[in-house]
């Protein structure tokens, strides 16, 4: 049952701490295990991946069957409803159109006396995309990870996703991967998949970057391989915060809170409102709607542990809470949502108005749904095209241009005690040079 916290009468610090600590639960317990998995995959390659897939997924992999074949892709299309395939294609078009607008260009500038400065942008060569299995297939995560990489111009996109007990990948996942443009798809999940992508094996190419959400084992593995390759972020359990005033529709708000609660037992669903009447209406709606939804066990656990309705004095306090929690998804169900946007400093994605429901962003609108969670929206951004681009600086000086600044550079170098640095400038102006 979702609880009501009246912050006008009681402290809400315990709620804040609980929400922000969700992704750290039991990390010390899993760290040692994940270190062992990562080390074994790094040292033993395919053999370790096969061993862990057999152990965790009850599937026997070999070098011959770990990669999805063209025949398996063709078969997937035969097992997915044509209407859903068309929806995937329309979603792809929206996501692609949005991400194309994020592309940057290389640039050069010419200064006086022969100084040329610039920046070259190049796509990463090989990227690994992780798509979790879990309690429900997530073709939307395939689109959201693969499409920005394709837009960036990445040469090869390697996808990993855990197989079912029958040794196969969900056909909807395969269709989404093929439509989005994944080049290679491997049947592996968990920490072992992250390690295989980061270090490479006899069958799997070593990638430059790993992206995609996952559970605590996946995120811990991403932390451990960071530095051997790049990663996107530590995207953990999903969360939504709805800020609503008296004009909000309680039925809509409750439905959106529940849409996140069904993801995972660690998902957080929080309403912040200055209307006590709305608070109790939403509480009743949450209970009413839960009764006819699927995944009740997950929803109830999530709502019991991480669901809350917080009553505040005013919208100023609501905004303060938003910026403290830095939610992954933020809905502004208020009379003037655009007037509030400027005050929001920390949020992964902001949904404005009663008809910008969060699931719209999950599947179809275009902005990426791989978002920072557990307070990391304070410093992380949504997955974007820039994540798949590397930048190289360019510097060119003529002799005259260097002559103008040589004394400054020499003094700077000598102030740091780096005489060879100073000498590298000085020798260029010795007699005869």
Automatic annotation (TrEMBL):
<feature type="binding site">
    <location>
        <position position="263"/>
    </location>
    <ligand>
        <name>Zn(2+)</name>
    </ligand>
</feature>
<comment type="function">
    <text>Catalyzes the sequential NAD-dependent oxidations of L-histidinol to L-histidinaldehyde and then to L-histidine.</text>
</comment>
<dbReference type="InterPro" id="IPR012131">
    <property type="entry name" value="Hstdl_DH"/>
</dbReference>
<feature type="active site" description="Proton acceptor">
    <location>
        <position position="329"/>
    </location>
</feature>
<protein>
    <recommendedName>
        <fullName>Histidinol dehydrogenase</fullName>
        <ecNumber>1.1.1.23</ecNumber>
    </recommendedName>
</protein>
<feature type="binding site">
    <location>
        <position position="416"/>
    </location>
    <ligand>
        <name>substrate</name>
    </ligand>
</feature>
<feature type="binding site">
    <location>
        <position position="421"/>
    </location>
    <ligand>
        <name>Zn(2+)</name>
    </ligand>
</feature>
<keyword id="KW-0368">Histidine biosynthesis</keyword>
<keyword id="KW-0520">NAD</keyword>
<feature type="binding site">
    <location>
        <position position="362"/>
    </location>
    <ligand>
        <name>substrate</name>
    </ligand>
</feature>
<keyword id="KW-0479">Metal-binding</keyword>
<dbReference type="Pfam" id="PF00815">
    <property type="entry name" value="Histidinol_dh"/>
</dbReference>
<keyword id="KW-0175">Coiled coil</keyword>
<keyword id="KW-0862">Zinc</keyword>
<feature type="binding site">
    <location>
        <position position="192"/>
    </location>
    <ligand>
        <name>NAD(+)</name>
    </ligand>
</feature>
<feature type="binding site">
    <location>
        <position position="238"/>
    </location>
    <ligand>
        <name>substrate</name>
    </ligand>
</feature>
<feature type="binding site">
    <location>
        <position position="260"/>
    </location>
    <ligand>
        <name>Zn(2+)</name>
    </ligand>
</feature>
<dbReference type="GO" id="GO:0008270">
    <property type="term" value="F:zinc ion binding"/>
</dbReference>
<dbReference type="InterPro" id="IPR022695">
    <property type="entry name" value="Histidinol_DH_monofunct"/>
</dbReference>
<feature type="binding site">
    <location>
        <position position="263"/>
    </location>
    <ligand>
        <name>substrate</name>
    </ligand>
</feature>
<feature type="coiled-coil region">
    <location>
        <begin position="63"/>
        <end position="90"/>
    </location>
</feature>
<feature type="active site" description="Proton acceptor">
    <location>
        <position position="328"/>
    </location>
</feature>
<feature type="binding site">
    <location>
        <position position="130"/>
    </location>
    <ligand>
        <name>NAD(+)</name>
    </ligand>
</feature>
<feature type="binding site">
    <location>
        <position position="329"/>
    </location>
    <ligand>
        <name>substrate</name>
    </ligand>
</feature>
<comment type="pathway">
    <text>Amino-acid biosynthesis; L-histidine biosynthesis; L-histidine from 5-phospho-alpha-D-ribose 1-diphosphate: step 9/9.</text>
</comment>
<dbReference type="GO" id="GO:0051287">
    <property type="term" value="F:NAD binding"/>
</dbReference>
<feature type="binding site">
    <location>
        <position position="215"/>
    </location>
    <ligand>
        <name>NAD(+)</name>
    </ligand>
</feature>
<dbReference type="InterPro" id="IPR001692">
    <property type="entry name" value="Histidinol_DH_CS"/>
</dbReference>
<feature type="binding site">
    <location>
        <position position="421"/>
    </location>
    <ligand>
        <name>substrate</name>
    </ligand>
</feature>
<dbReference type="GO" id="GO:0000105">
    <property type="term" value="P:L-histidine biosynthetic process"/>
</dbReference>
<keyword id="KW-0560">Oxidoreductase</keyword>
<comment type="similarity">
    <text>Belongs to the histidinol dehydrogenase family.</text>
</comment>
<dbReference type="GO" id="GO:0005829">
    <property type="term" value="C:cytosol"/>
</dbReference>
<feature type="binding site">
    <location>
        <position position="362"/>
    </location>
    <ligand>
        <name>Zn(2+)</name>
    </ligand>
</feature>
<feature type="binding site">
    <location>
        <position position="260"/>
    </location>
    <ligand>
        <name>substrate</name>
    </ligand>
</feature>
<dbReference type="GO" id="GO:0004399">
    <property type="term" value="F:histidinol dehydrogenase activity"/>
</dbReference>
<dbReference type="InterPro" id="IPR016161">
    <property type="entry name" value="Ald_DH/histidinol_DH"/>
</dbReference>
<keyword id="KW-0028">Amino-acid biosynthesis</keyword>
């Amino acid at each position: 049952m979702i609880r009501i916290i009246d912050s006008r009468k009681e402290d809400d610090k315990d709620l804040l701490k609980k929400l922000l600590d969700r992704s750290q639960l039991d990390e010390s317990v899993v760290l040692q295990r994940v270190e062992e998995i990562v080390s074994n995959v790094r040292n033993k390659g395919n053999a370790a991946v096969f061993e862990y897939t057999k152990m965790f997924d009850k599937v026997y992999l070999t070098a011959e069957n770990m990669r999805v074949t063209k025949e398996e892709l063709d078969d997937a299309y035969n097992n997915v409803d044509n209407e859903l395939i068309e929806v995937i294609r329309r979603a792809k078009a929206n996501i692609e159109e949005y991400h194309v607008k994020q592309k940057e260009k290389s640039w050069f500038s010419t200064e006086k006396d022969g100084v040329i400065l610039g920046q070259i942008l190049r796509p990463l060569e090989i990227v690994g995309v992780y798509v979790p299995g879990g309690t429900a297939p997530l073709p939307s995560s395939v689109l959201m990870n693969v499409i920005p990489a394709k837009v960036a111009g990445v040469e090869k996109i390697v996808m990993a996703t855990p197989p079912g007990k029958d040794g196969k990948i969900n056909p909807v996942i395969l269709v989404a991967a093929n439509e989005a443009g994944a080049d290679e798809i491997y049947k592996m999940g968990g920490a072992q998949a992250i390690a295989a992508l980061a270090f490479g094996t006899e069958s799997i190419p070593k990638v430059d970057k790993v992206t995609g959400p996952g559970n605590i084992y996946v995120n811990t593995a991403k932390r451990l391989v960071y530095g051997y390759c790049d990663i996107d972020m530590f995207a953990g359990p999903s969360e939504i915060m709805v800020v609503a005033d008296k004009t909000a529709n309680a039925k809509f708000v409750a439905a959106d809170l529940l849409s996140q609660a069904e993801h995972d037992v660690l998902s957080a669903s929080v309403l912040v409102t200055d209307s006590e009447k709305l608070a109790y209406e939403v509480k009743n709606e949450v209970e009413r709607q839960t009764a006819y939804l699927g995944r009740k066990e997950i929803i109830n656990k999530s709502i019991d542990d991480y669901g809350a309705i917080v009553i505040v004095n005013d919208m100023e306090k609501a905004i303060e809470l938003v910026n403290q929690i830095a939610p992954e998804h933020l809905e502004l169900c208020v009379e003037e949502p655009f007037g509030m946007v400027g005050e929001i400093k920390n949020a992964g994605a902001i949904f404005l108005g009663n008809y910008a429901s969060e699931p719209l962003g999950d599947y179809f609108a275009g902005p990426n749904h791989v978002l920072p969670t557990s307070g990391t929206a304070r410093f992380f951004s949504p997955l974007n095209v820039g994540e798949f681009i590397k930048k190289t600086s360019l510097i060119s000086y003529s002799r005259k241009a260097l002559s103008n600044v040589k004394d400054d550079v020499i003094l700077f170098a000598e102030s740091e005690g780096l005489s060879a640095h100073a000498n590298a400038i000085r020798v260029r102006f010795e007699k005869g040079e």
